[in-house]
Design goal:
Blueprint (H helix, E strand, L loop, with lengths): L1 H8 L3 H12 L4 H7 L3 H14 L8 H14 L8 H24 E5 L6 E4 L5 E4 L4 E5 L7 E6 L1 E5 L6 E5 L2 E5 L3 E7 L2 E8 L1 E6 L4 E5 L2 E6 L2 E6 L11 E8 H12 L2 E3 L8 E7 L3 H11 L2 E6 L2 E6 L1
Parallel strand pairs: 5-7, 16-19
Antiparallel strand pairs: 1-4, 2-3, 3-6, 4-5, 6-9, 7-8, 8-11, 9-10, 10-13, 11-12, 13-14, 15-17, 18-19
Length: 310
């Protein structure tokens, strides 16, 4: 919000003065008509229109302006109060509060904790299942025109047909029309599996990959890997987290997210890859499955797992 606000506050100062006069009805008909043609007015009007729809207590611009005047008048001064700055201050307060409530109420955020899964119904009927330690958000006010979500973590999507549907991550974007697919993302890591339909995956290097049913792509530290998988095999949604030639560090992250543990000495196994699965309902079984298959020694002490090479 601070970036947007800063840009707005950098606009010409007379627009802020005109805003305060507009709110208090002090503009002449000619001034009012001219002000309503500016970009600043359109932005202010949109913010105020949004705040009027909220359930929060009504914002009294006149009262705020009066309080600012009262506060400034009570302070010691050696020169006459310049109401030009009062207008600017009042306009700034309107912008700040209006923008805060506008942005706050437009964004819908869903978040899961360690070991949690969350089923989400989107406004268009599309469905999302959010995996552990993941966050998903979207703008409800623009959803009808632009089905765009932001994901950090892992989620399975079942998208109804309609306008373009985008899942944006820090490591790339997935675009579909109507399909089922899984997205897993982390720092320098993006993996997408298509279970039906067709998806277009674009990574941060601007390279696109078209996936159809049973196709998958992974970008890890700028290296791209493609493979085919069986769409009827069990997945993390049924209690089994499955991996195909997955960098072991990503598997360890998944273990930490699922069981709320800390794994030490991970950096010693940065080059290892894991193919297999672990259960999501038993820490001991999960650790044994992964580390015995990788021939890695481990010790579990409460919620700390320490790794060592054999």
């Amino acid at each position: 919000m601070s970036v947007i606000l800063r840009e707005m506050m950098n606009s010409e100062q007379h627009n802020e003065i005109d805003l305060a006069k507009w709110l208090s009805g002090e503009l002449s008909p000619e001034e009012k008509q001219a002000f309503e043609q500016t970009d600043a007015y359109k932005t202010y009007a949109k913010i105020i229109n949004a705040t009027e729809k909220l359930n929060d207590p009504a914002y009294d611009e006149a009262a705020v302006l009066a309080k600012i005047k009262e506060k400034l008048a009570a302070q010691p001064k050696v020169r006459k109060l310049n109401f030009r700055y009062v207008y600017t201050a009042a306009a700034s307060v309107v912008i700040l509060f209006g923008l805060y409530f506008f942005l706050k109420n437009a964004t819908i955020t869903h978040q899961t904790n360690f070991g949690q899964q969350l089923a989400i119904n989107l406004p268009d009927g599309s469905e999302v299942i959010l995996n552990a330690k993941s966050t998903l958000d979207y703008d409800k006010d623009t959803w009808d025109k632009e089905r765009t979500l932001h994901l950090n973590g892992e989620a399975y999507f079942k998208v109804t047909k309609g306008s373009p549907f985008k899942v944006i991550t820090d490591e790339g974007t997935v675009e579909v029309l109507g399909t089922e697919f899984n997205v897993d993302t982390n720092t320098n890591f993006l993996e997408v599996q298509c279970f039906s339909g067709k998806v277009n995956v674009t990574n941060t290097a601007k390279k696109s990959h078209i996936l159809t049913k049973g196709k998958a792509v992974r970008t890890y530290n700028a290296t791209v890997t493609n493979w085919t998988f069986n769409t009827v095999e069990e997945t993390w949604m049924s209690g089994l987290s499955s991996f195909n030639e997955m960098p072991l560090l990503e598997v360890l992250d998944a273990l930490e997210d699922q069981y709320q543990i800390t794994i030490k000495n991970k950096e010693n196994f940065a080059q290892e890859r894991f193919t297999g699965r672990f259960v999501n309902d038993s820490l001991e079984v999960a650790l044994k499955t992964v580390f015995e298959a990788m021939d890695i020694d481990y010790k579990l002490n409460t919620n700390i797992v320490t790794l060592s090479k054999k």
